[in-house]
Amino acid sequence: MKFLVVFLSLAVFFQCEAKLLSRCELVQQLRSHGFPEDKMRDWVCLVENESSGRTHKIGKVNKNGSRDYGLFQINDKYWCSNTSTAGKDCNVTCADLITDDITKAAKCAKKVFKRHGFRAWYGWRNKCQGSLPDISSC
After folding, report:
1. Could you report the per-residue pLDDT of 8-29, keeping only the tens digit for each?
2. What positions does the domain Glycosyl hydrolases family 22 (GH22) occupy (predicted)?
3. Helix (H) or strand (E) holding 75
4. Is 18 inside a domain boundary?
5. Sign (positive/negative) of CA torsion 35, 78, 70, 62?
6. Active-site residue (options: 42, 48, 68, 96)
7. pLDDT per residue over 54-90, tens digit each?
8. Structural domain boundaries, residue 71
9. Distances from the Cα of 135 to the Cα of 37, 47, 52, 72, 110, angstroms
10. What CATH number did the domain enclosing 92 receive?
11. Exposed e or buried b for every residue in 18-47, given b needs 16+ CB within 10 A?
12. 89 carries an active-site annotation
């Protein structure tokens, strides 16, 4: 019984810590981090389909044993380190990618995009080609 109480308390604590960005909040955050306006609808679609706008999302283990982290669901195989020391191509820890301050996640996402384009994300590939969200009210 004690275990259940502790588990539920921790679950509530971590759930309260996670930020869920609405579409317009996301647009505002992306603009503040210098994402280009001509690709804004693509970025919004990508985030909505990868993390549903949740900054603290950690994906399920992928077939290759890797995981995806944060708002942009950035993979730990090449991009972030699962240790306390920043590393891999984005020179960040995966924990850096699951905070409400999306500065490091945004910088890393731009790096992934620069190398691979939107095709690096399955959420964009599967859901965003030809059908992008309306952000005109944002």
Report:
1. 333 334 444 679 999 999 999 9
2. 90-108
3. strand 74-75
4. no
5. positive
6. 68
7. 999 999 999 999 999 999 999 999 999 999 999 999 9
8. 23-128
9. 11, 13, 16, 18, 20
10. 1.10.530.10
11. ebebebeebbebbeeeebeeeebbbbbbbb
12. no
Domain count, the chain: 1
Does a structural domain hold residue 89?
yes
- Whether 56 contacts 13, CB under 8 Å: no
Tell how strand 74-75 and strand 68-69 pair up.
antiparallel
Is 85 among the domain residues?
yes
Confidence (pTM): 0.86
Catalytic: 50? yes
pLDDT at 17: 60
Contact call for residues 70 and 53 (beta carbons, < 8 A): no
Residue 13 lies in a domain: no
